[in-house]
Amino acid sequence: MEHSPPIFHVLMILVLWTVVTAAFIGTAEGHRHHRRGGRATELEAFHYAAAGAGGCRAHVASLTDFGGVGDGVTSNTAAFAAAVANLSKVACDGGAMLVVPAGRWLTGPFNLTNHFTLFLDHDAVILATQDINEWPIIDPLPSYGRGRDSTGARYSNLIMGYNLTDVVITGNNGTIDGQGETWWEMFRNKELNYTRGYLIELMYCMQVLISNITLVDSPSWNVHPVYSSQVIVSGITILAPVNSPNTDGINPDSSSNVRIEDCYIVSGDDCIAIKSGWDEYGIAFNMSSKHIVIRRLTCISPSSAVIALGSEMSGGIQDVRAEDITAIHSESGVRIKTAIGRGAYVKDIFVRRMNLHTMKWVFWMTGTYGQHPDDNFDPNAIPVVQNISYSNVVAENVTMAAKLEGIPGAPFTGICIYNVTAEVVKSKKPIWNCTDVEGVSSHVTPTPCAQIPDYPDRITQCPFPEDDLPVDCVGLTECSHQRTKP
Ligand SMILES: *[C@@H]1O[C@H](CO)[C@@H](O)[C@H](O)[C@H]1NC(C)=O
Ligand SMILES: *[C@@H]1O[C@H](CO)[C@@H](O)[C@H](O)[C@H]1NC(C)=O
Ligand SMILES: *[C@@H]1O[C@H](CO)[C@@H](O)[C@H](O)[C@H]1NC(C)=O
Ligand SMILES: *[C@@H]1O[C@H](CO)[C@@H](O)[C@H](O)[C@H]1NC(C)=O
Ligand SMILES: *[C@@H]1O[C@H](CO)[C@@H](O)[C@H](O)[C@H]1NC(C)=O
Ligand SMILES: *[C@@H]1O[C@H](CO)[C@@H](O)[C@H](O)[C@H]1NC(C)=O
Ligand SMILES: *[C@@H]1O[C@H](CO)[C@@H](O)[C@H](O)[C@H]1NC(C)=O
Ligand SMILES: *[C@@H]1O[C@H](CO)[C@@H](O)[C@H](O)[C@H]1NC(C)=O
Ligand SMILES: *[C@@H]1O[C@H](CO)[C@@H](O)[C@H](O)[C@H]1NC(C)=O
Ligand SMILES: *[C@@H]1O[C@H](CO)[C@@H](O)[C@H](O)[C@H]1NC(C)=O
Ligand SMILES: *[C@@H]1O[C@H](CO)[C@@H](O)[C@H](O)[C@H]1NC(C)=O
Predict the structure, then answer these.
(1) CA angle 100, 104, 110 (to 5 degrees)
(2) Measured in angstroms, how far is the CA atom of residue 387 from the centroid of ligand 8?
(3) Which of 2, 22, 264, 412 is deepest in the core (most CB within 10 A)?
(4) CATH number of the domain that 73 lies in?
């Protein structure tokens, strides 16, 4: 039987954490940090989110303090760079928050800093420039060996964190608009010489919070924590046309202790995709994605998965927990994608309480995904897929219940499916098509394939871990910024 989530509710209680940042204003120190040319922008009082104790910032500045102009036309690339450079100096002196006020702030890519909060006002829109010359070229990810769209380097991400500790991107549901249409067009026309940038990438970062913002029209992936740990993504909205190329929602990649909760994602690719590097590059880099929890996700992605594991998984994927998942229209639920040459493993995956509507396959696993970075992949690098559990799933208006396709000679094992009802409509193909997989099931309608036989009396549940992950113990706190007088 299901046990209720442990002390999770207690952990989720928002702690009111009032820091009198006003104490800093009006002091010599306050003036030093808030002013340039004798004037600092007035900021009204507001609340902002932090993860755990210590995330409330001692220093607060507005983008306008650094010459920012929110007219939708003027470039703010230099203003963001100046602001971050300036505020990085107080990282160890209580940290800083950069406020992006109401307005439309056109910018090229910029980097974040340590102990730093980027706060977007409700009516603030950060607009990614469509001037391709403003996007620096950066190295490909070492675990991929090349860009994802093309060989070689890649364009910078719009907002990038590199080797940082304690970084927050939050707001009153302000917007980051990737203005991706021109990138999608160039990608479709094969005009790009480098891989498209992501909207937010955090690389080698610890203690990350992304909350209460809306991301629209990314050129490619939206949120990409890579080689990072202690990452919380909470209450964000991601919107992209359902036919836009590779606009994945949130992609934890070679990252551990990741918590994704209360997100609403409409996209042209997987709403969430957990990854860990690509073939021989990922095997050599050898950094897994593990201890990941996803809860209360709502997804619309008609041609992709609600949650994908892979296809790049060559550092391994282990201990993923997904619960209370709603999909309104998708191609498949929690999908496993891998191939010979990937190596590593996808194991200990636990899914419960999915409510799915309009989809092609409720369950989909693929051992022949293909897509190699180059011809140097190791044909003996056979991925292991094992210990995969799904319980309490209701699916309506589906075309097929399952397509479970393992690897000949290396079957996917330990699959457990319990308490599932799939309303299959007008299927011409077999409702279950299973090859090279082994597992058990119970209380599943329609009747599963012979490889996942129904044991109504022996199976009373599929496993779901009862312990909390370390990242579950991080409380979201609410800081309050007092009104700043100019
Ligand atoms: C940037 O930081 C320096 C030193 O911390 C400070 O004197 C200066 O006023 C700051 N500039 C702005 C625009 O806040
Ligand atoms: C951001 O930092 C990375 C890593 O140091 C660097 O490659 C990139 O050029 C920086 N981007 C900008 C816009 O400064
Ligand atoms: C970033 O961190 C990585 C891994 O810890 C390290 O190898 C690299 O030197 C760091 N780079 C910079 C620019 O700090
Ligand atoms: C999130 O944004 C809403 C406005 O859309 C605001 O009322 C709320 O206080 C914000 N919450 C946090 C934790 O920042
Ligand atoms: C944030 O804004 C988006 C886009 O306007 C909206 O769909 C979403 O409901 C808002 N979220 C919150 C928490 O207000
Ligand atoms: C790609 O490279 C070619 C050849 O150098 C150049 O003509 C073209 O403008 C480049 N495309 C883009 C989008 O930069
Ligand atoms: C990857 O690292 C783990 C330890 O974290 C080690 O046990 C394993 O052998 C390594 N795999 C490869 C392919 O190097
Ligand atoms: C599956 O994972 C759970 C939780 O980590 C563990 O208790 C169990 O032993 C695993 N089962 C197999 C067959 O590996
Ligand atoms: C059922 O799914 C089909 C696509 O397979 C879709 O066209 C139809 O609108 C869906 N019906 C409902 C009631 O959602
Ligand atoms: C089976 O799943 C349904 C829908 O999620 C749920 O309401 C019900 O309690 C579950 N039954 C058992 C015995 O777990
Ligand atoms: C079942 O799946 C296998 C492996 O993908 C495929 O070759 C076969 O055609 C499928 N069978 C049917 C009847 O669709």
Answers:
(1) 60
(2) 6
(3) 412
(4) 2.160.20.10
Kindly list the distances between the CA atom of residue 389 and the CA atoms of 310, 319, 335, 352, 355, in Å, as whole numbers in the listed order: 17, 11, 12, 8, 16
Residue closest via CA to ligand 2's atom 8 equals 138
Task: Give the model's pLDDT for residue 22.
Answer: 28
CA-wise closest residue to 220 among 183, 251, 192: 183
E-strand spans in 40-122?
Answer: 46-51, 59-62, 71-75, 96-100, 103-107, 110-111, 116-120
Q: Does residue 484 belong to any structural domain of this protein?
A: no
Whether 269 is catalytic is yes
DSSP per residue, 305-317? EEEEE-SS-TT-E
User: What one-letter code names the amino acid at 332?
Assistant: S
User: Does residue 485 fall inside a structural domain?
Assistant: no
Tens digits of residue pLDDT in 81-132: 999 999 999 999 999 999 999 999 999 999 999 999 999 999 999 999 999 9
Asked if residue 78 belongs to a domain, the reply is yes
Q: How many angstroms separate the CA atoms of 413 and 333, rounded?
A: 19
The 3-state DSSP class for residue 132 equals: helix
Tokens for 92, please give them: 């160890």
Q: Whose CA is nearest to atom 8 of ligand 4?
A: 172
186, 207, 257, 278 from 287: Cα distances, Å:
32, 18, 13, 11
Q: Which atom of ligand 10 is nearest to the CA of 393?
A: 5
Residue 453: name the closest of 468, 434, 426 by CA: 434
C-alpha closest to that of 113 among 91, 98, 94: 91
Instruction: Give the three-state DSSP class for 358.
Output: strand
Looking at residue 370, the DSSP 8-state letter turns out to be -
3-state class of 279 per DSSP?
helix
Residue nearest to atom 4 of ligand 3 (CA): 204
Looking at the CA of residue 478, tell me the nearest atom of ligand 4: 13
Whether 122 contacts 171, CB under 8 Å: yes
> How far is Cα 316 from Cα 387, in angstroms, rounded to an integer?
14
Residue 31 has φ and ψ, to the nearest 5°, of: -60, -40
Q: Is residue 348 part of a domain?
A: yes
In angstroms, the CA 402 to CA 174 distance is 39
Tell which residue, 397, 388, 399, 389, has the closest CA to residue 356.
397
Number of domains in the chain: 1
Identify the bridge partners of residue 39 per DSSP, sorted by sequence position: 36
Q: Which residues of the chain have pLDDT under 70?
A: 1-40, 53-54, 484-486
Instruction: Check residue 53 and give its pLDDT.
Output: 62
Per-residue model confidence as pLDDT tens digits over 146-189: 999 999 999 999 999 999 999 999 999 999 999 999 999 999 99
Question: What is the domain extent for residue 118?
Answer: 7-478
